[in-house]
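ok trying this again, last paste got cut off
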Amino acid sequence: MKRMAVAMAAGIVLAGAASASATEATDIRTVCQSTTLFVSHELCVTFQNVADADVEKMEVRATTSTGMGHWELFGPRGTIKNSLDGEWKDRTHDWSGYQDGANGDLWCAVFWRDTGAGYIKGTQPLCVKATNRW
């Protein structure tokens, strides 16, 4: 919950634009957000359908150098998946499965930079807000 408040305070919580064809809209819905703050990256969240906030996939991709570190994907109940440590420029970290969601939930990604003495936040959390108002 604390991370959600930080993400909202940073102003990087955006509703996003849905990207699905009319025939796919009843099955799945993918919403993407991007930012160039610190590291240029994009987070895409795939919801089960237009009327449901349950999540079946998350992926984050950086287009600029991240430095050494790892991505954390998280939702309203905490961490969903961490990536391996490495340089993530032009690489995608993703997760597929099922996460129960509700309208208004935030689904986020943050990069943790390895300083050699520990991890510091390399990006502010980038979040997609679950909503069925498409």
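PB: full thing came through this time. Residues 11-25 have pLDDT under 50 and may be disordered.
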